[in-house]
Amino acid sequence: MTKIITDRMLKQFIEDAKTDTEKKYTQICAGKNLWLRVHTKTGASAWLYRIALPDPTKRSGYKFSNMSFATYPDTPLDIAREKATQFNELIKKRIDPSAMLSMVNGVDKLWSVLLNKDYDTITKLVTALESLESGAVNDELELNKIQIEPKA
């Protein structure tokens, strides 16, 4: 019989984790590839989603990775479970949720730059894209060096 994790259990787990001096982090599974990782010294907690994408090149047939997507208690258990369900739907469609989340965050930052008319950052982006297009830059790594931080 599977034990259903509750908020009360998570809070107790965090308190217990703070007494663990052997590990830096400890984790508890909240179901459906959803984990709560707790820093044993501070009690800081983050929600992780365990990604298992089909990959025929791997011996197991899957590529595994963890994606941190929110903190606890800022994001409560029920909301984290909803997010995990959404991520599971993406996995069924063979879409990597971490790539999707990165894309969405990048678009949000870019939109903010445009709305705030941050012309310095826009100019840097256009210059980098032109360099990439002309072949002056071999790959997209140069684009990653540009910091897109919206001005307040």
Lay out the secondary structure:
Blueprint: H1 7-17, E1 25-31, E2 34-39, E3 45-54, E4 62-72, H2 77-92, H3 97-115, H4 119-134, H5 141-144
Antiparallel strand pairs: 1-2, 2-3, 3-4
Walkthrough of the structure:
By secondary structure, the chain is α+β, with helices and mostly antiparallel strands. It has two domains: 1-95, Integrase, DNA-binding domain (Double Stranded RNA Binding Domain); 96-152, no CATH class. Helices cover 43% and strands 22% of the residues. The protein has a four-stranded antiparallel sheet. A hairpin with a 7-residue loop joins strand 3 (45-54) and strand 4. The mean pLDDT is 80.
Give the structure's gist in a few sentences.
This protein has 152 residues and is α+β, with helices and mostly antiparallel strands.
